[in-house]
Design brief:
Number of domains: 1
Order of helices and strands: EEEHEHEEHHEEEEEEHHEEH
Strand order of the largest sheet: 5-6-4-1-7-12-9-13
Structural class: alpha/beta
Distance between the termini: 32 Å
Oligomer: single chain
């Protein structure tokens, strides 16, 4: 299974930064006895791996080679590939660039500038249907609110609307390869007009498609703003840094950083 990470955005809400927003340090982790800063996108990679992804695909812009430099070719046992989105053209344009390598395999899609719990929640999503991992938030109008029927099937996704109609938003989603292909074909048939996943999914539902909402999420923070960054730090502290849930798993160093790991006093890599 592929984990697809759209990371080509400019991150204009939290600029100026001297690096890609996906590498913003948020919290820390202990790997083999060494504490190091944790890039915010590592939380998503960890969750994708716990959810069953064995391969990761970053969609980056031409100016974001620092992501490639940081993660290299692997993380926590998952291999990493990179594809380029030449210009910021929306989330749909970004994720469908991965169709060329995903083929018929199932995919998980998430946003790399978020921190959410529980970290193993992606494992609750079924394998055979388009499904959204949902989180309760106080201000759903800033996100994509998901409206469900009594059987938890998705009725509608309202993209950043003031009348959200639900306090449940999607934080990640999963689908079999056949659905990924179907959504890609639909996007092309609609002249690639859908910038947001929500509007495309609404069209998919109108044509008879089915999607499920899974309310397994408990906390969700978008670190795209300074307020969001502060909220993420508070959330990590609240979840208990050092507990099994609050601390990132010991997945090892990003492959691109192995050469720069600190040494002990004898010059041996820690």
């Amino acid at each position: 299974m592929w984990g697809i990470i759209p990371a080509a955005g400019l991150g204009s809400r939290i600029q100026p930064l001297a690096f890609s927003k996906e590498l913003l340090p948020v919290g820390s982790r202990i790997d083999q006895g060494v504490e190091r800063p944790c890039a915010v996108s590592e939380y998503l990679l960890e969750r994708m791996i716990l959810g069953g992804a064995g391969k990761i695909c970053f969609i980056i812009s031409p100016g974001k080679s620092d992501i490639l430099e940081y993660f290299g070719d692997s993380y926590g046992g998952a291999r990493i590939a990179y594809l380029v989105q030449p210009k910021a053209s929306g989330l749909c344009d970004a994720i469908f660039r991965a169709q060329v390598i995903a083929g018929t395999e199932p995919v998980i899609i998430g946003l790399p500038d978020t921190v959410w719990f529980p970290k193993a929640a992606l494992a609750d999503l079924p394998d055979d249907i388009l499904s959204f991992l949902l989180f309760p938030v106080e201000r759903p109008e800033f996100f994509d609110a998901v409206l469900l029927d009594e059987q938890d099937h998705v009725r509608e996704i309202r993209v950043k609307q003031e009348n959200a109609g639900s306090n449940w938003i999607w934080g990640a989603f999963k689908m079999p390869g056949s659905v990924f292909e179907a959504l890609h074909r639909l996007w092309l048939a609609r002249n690639q007009a859908d910038e947001y996943v929500g509007t495309l999914v609404n069209a998919y539902l109108a044509e008879g498609g089915v999607a499920l909402g899974v309310k397994s999420g408990s906390a969700y923070v978008d670190i795209g703003t300074l307020n969001g960054y502060r909220a993420a730090i508070s959330l990590l502290a609240e979840m208990g840094h050092g507990s099994s849930e609050g601390s990132p798993s010991g997945l090892g160093w990003p492959a691109g950083r192995l050469r720069s790991r600190p040494t002990d006093q004898q010059g041996i890599k820690a």
